[in-house]
Amino acid sequence: MPPGKAVALGELVGAATSNAAHLPSFVGGRRDIKLATLAANPINTRDLKRDPDKLAELVTSMRVDGQIQACAGVNRAAFLAIFPEHAKSIGDATIVQVTGGRRRLAAVELGMETLRVDVLDDLAESRVRFIRATGAENLDRDDLDPIEEAKMVEMLVGELGEGKAAAEQLGKTPAWVTQRLNLLKLDAAVQAAIVAREIPLREVRDLHKRSSAEQLTALEAWRNRTTAPASTDPEADAGHPRGTGSAAAPRQRLSPTAAAFQRLGGTPSKIAGALRSQMQPDEIAELIRLLTEQ
């Protein structure tokens, strides 16, 4: 897989469908699985309850329209063949989910007895394949925060032995993999600020090279710069350019719009993903019209 090529869950599922016949133990196809016999994916690094509003929307959607999209899963034997250390965590489940963790939570909240699952044992042909399939859905949709991404990348690198191989599996560049792994070297408070979208990744790119105390100092300095009021003395600002000298002028307070963009992720793809999760299709269409009209 060439670097930069997106990993689409559909490609993984398509491959599983075509290769499943080569696995003698495969008993699959789309089935309604009892929740009592369906185990959550024990290696998923995503915090499924991190966004209660988004989960509530999914609950409402499934209450009104039912389960529109099937989850992906594998048989117990196929999972334990590659992850025997997780036997205790899946209990007596007969099927282990690969994707659709939030749909499972929504189904539990709604009191549903079953969940529709595409049972695709080919996704468990190796540990790497299973990890990649677990992360693909979330990476495609920008659903993972950077720390969750980093934990998933770390897991994949651990299996493959090097970052370059992990980058090829994920369709990312080696630099992206290295940057994500460096996030796991940061102090827990800095990681929490990243998850909360309080501080952008560009501000922490080299912080992993510094001590924990220095990282916390840098975090506090960022907070002070982004909340300090703008200078009311233009001549003073002109005489002391920001970032020079021993008493650089504080960074101007973010405008409400800039602060909102930062909270939504800071990049066009993450902003779009956040808006899609909160707006109805007709509202999105109206927003596009207003943004593009002359």
Instruction: Tell me the strand percentage band.
Output: 5-15%
Total number of beta strands: 5
Based on secondary structure, the structural category is: alpha/beta
Query: Which series of helices and strands comes N to C?
Result: HEEHEHHEHEHHHHHHHHHH
Give the CATH level 1 class of the domain at 9-142.
Alpha Beta
Helicity range of the residues?
Answer: 40-55%
**What CATH architecture label of the domain at 9-142 applies?**
Alpha-Beta Complex
CATH superfamily of the domain at 9-142: Conserved hypothetical protein from pyrococcus furiosus pfu- 392566-001, ParB domain
Task: Write up this protein.
The structure is a single chain. By secondary structure, the protein is an alpha/beta fold. The chain is 52% helix and 7% strand. Among the domains are: 9-142, Alpha-Beta Complex (Conserved hypothetical protein from pyrococcus furiosus pfu- 392566-001, ParB domain), CATH 3.90.1530; 252-294, no CATH class. It has helices spanning 9-19, 52-65, 76-82, 87-90, 101-110, 127-140, 146-160, 163-170, 174-183, 188-195, 212-227, 234-239, 256-263, 268-278, 281-292; strands at residues 29-34, 38-39, 71-75, 95-97, 114-119. It has a five-stranded mixed β-sheet. Helix 2 packs across helix 5 and helix 8 (163-170) crosses helix 9 (174-183). 27% of the residues are buried.
